[in-house]
UniProtKB/TrEMBL annotation:
PANTHER family: CYTOCHROME P450, CYTOCHROME P450 12A4, MITOCHONDRIAL-RELATED. This is Cytochrome P450. Keywords: Heme, Iron, Metal-binding, Monooxygenase, Oxidoreductase. Its cofactor is heme. The keyword Metal-binding applies. Belongs to the cytochrome P450 family.
Length: 455
């Protein structure tokens, strides 16, 4: 595989473009120079390396993700401050290594297995239906706000035993934390750092209430009532970091998966009509539990295609723990590698017309996790895949069985990329009666630049 090297004098403008819009910048870079680019930075990173690799290839991705001890996860956005609450709140599962990572991964695999998720699905459907009943008909609704409320309630109900009174103020703080993360820090980040000690105290007070009260359906209870790898109670860093990570992983990825898939459906009316018919035929007026929607083929294909085009986590970063090679290139200790999940999911060798929304491609295509890195791959693959997919299926089924949805008007739909990729600004949609005639206003802006929309 050919490697393109960027000279140091050209690096600063490139880094500025990546910081401003990493999706557009990496798309342009890889389109011009191939899937493996190495740049030399004019200043050393924390580890002392002056090299950064950028990859958009599934084989290179497989190499990196197959050895989590060599290729260490690095937060792509600005992290917390050392020896401060902001750093402890930022720990997360992805920053754990070796046996400690396996210890906590095993702890949360059991509560997220398919039979447990299936037992959760009636409650998922009830919560989603209760929120959907609040949507007004025939007037504009802020889509992202409405889906935020729904996914927040779903995540609290299913991850924290429906402890809404205690959880909702804390999940609001966690949401602000992840919204504050940027490649370069700004005022939202500084505000979050200022409030991080309050967030840490709130989580630890909540955790203290759970000690001695074991509940297999409450992940905070599971965490605080099980010892760490050394047989000791989990530390503040473990409790705060993992709870923030688990909630954000469930809430933020599902929020964006649901929102982007709905927006894509508003631009593809024939697929929307076929999917709505499938869902209504399966439900027949009942709630969309896992047994009713779990086997809907078009629903599954639509969700997989929506997440392929607009993966909730479009970029990942790893750091070499020691000197190694990648694609035949010598990689020094500490060198960072920026991985474009966004482009790997659009590999034309795997996906025909990769920029188009074509759910029926999933009748034939069977990519490996390294060719479809929506949920990660290798030893750090997300353990909550089944949970996340069912949450998205039930939410979409609830929305689409409630009426007909379209954009309120022709409008730009843009995006912002940090840890996740989400719509930026207010995107209004209208929920109409089933018999209403829809006009399907068109989206422009960032969505239209990333996806080949019809017309």
């Amino acid at each position: 595989m050919g490697v393109y090297h960027v000279d140091a004098w050209r690096t600063l403008p490139l880094l500025a473009r990546i910081a401003r819009d990493p999706i557009s910048a990496t798309r342009a870079l890889h389109a011009a120079h191939g899937p493996f680019v190495r740049i030399r930075v004019p200043f050393p990173t924390k580890s002392g390396s002056r090299q950064v690799s950028l990859i958009a290839d599934s084989d290179l991705y497989r190499t990196v993700m197959s050895d989590g001890n060599l290729w260490v996860n690095v937060q792509i956005t600005w992290g917390g401050i050392p020896n401060h609450a902001s750093n402890r709140l930022s720990l997360g599962m992805t920053r754990l290594r070796g046996e400690r990572h396996e210890h906590y991964r095993k702890m949360f695999v059991a509560p997220l297995k398919r039979p447990v998720v299936a037992a959760m699905s009636p409650e998922m459907a009830r919560v989603a239906a209760a929120e959907m009943a609040k949507w007004p008909r025939g007037v504009p609704v802020d889509l992202q706000h409405a889906i935020t409320v729904m996914t927040t309630k779903l995540a609290v109900a299913l991850l924290f035993g429906s402890d809404f009174e205690r959880a909702l103020p804390i999940t609001d703080l966690i949401t602000r934390q992840f919204k504050a993360f940027r490649i370069l820090p700004g005022r939202h980040y500084l505000r979050w750092v200022w409030n991080a000690p309050r967030q840490e105290r709130a989580i630890m007070e909540w955790a203290a209430e759970k000690r001695g009260n074991r509940d297999a359906h409450d992940l905070l209870s599971v965490l605080v009532n099980n010892p760490d790898l050394d047989g000791l109670p989990p530390s503040t860093e473990i409790i705060c970091g993992i709870i923030c990570f688990l909630y954000a992983a469930a809430y933020d990825t599902c929020l964006n998966g649901i929102t982007w898939t709905l927006l894509l459906l508003t631009q593809h009316p024939e697929i929307m009509r076929a999917l709505t018919a499938e869902i209504e035929g399966a439900l027949d007026g009942e709630l969309p539990t896992m047994d009713r929607v779990g086997q809907l083929l078009l629903l599954d294909r639509v969700i997989r295609e929506g997440m392929r085009l607009m993966p909730p986590v479009p970029l990942q970063m790893r750091r070499a723990g020691w000197t190694t090679t990648l694609g035949g290139e010598a990689v020094e200790h500490g060198e960072r590698t920026l991985i474009s999940s966004h482009l790997i999911c659009r590999d034309p060798g795997v996906y025909d017309e990769p920029d188009s929304f074509k759910p029926d491609r999933w009748r034939a295509v069977r990519p490996s996790p390294f060719q479809y890195p929506v949920f990660g791959a290798g030893g750090h693959m997300c353990p909550g895949v089944t949970f996340g997919l069912q949450m998205v299926k039930i939410a979409l089924s609830t929305i689409l069985s409630s009426g007909r949805i379209e954009l309120a008007r022709a409008m730009p739909v843009d995006y912002r990329t940090a840890v996740t990729m989400q719509p930026v600004g207010k995107v209004d949609v209208v929920l109409r009666d089933r018999t209403a005639k829809l006009t399907y206003p068109r989206a422009s802006g960032g969505l239209a630049r990333l996806v080949a929309l019809p017309g």
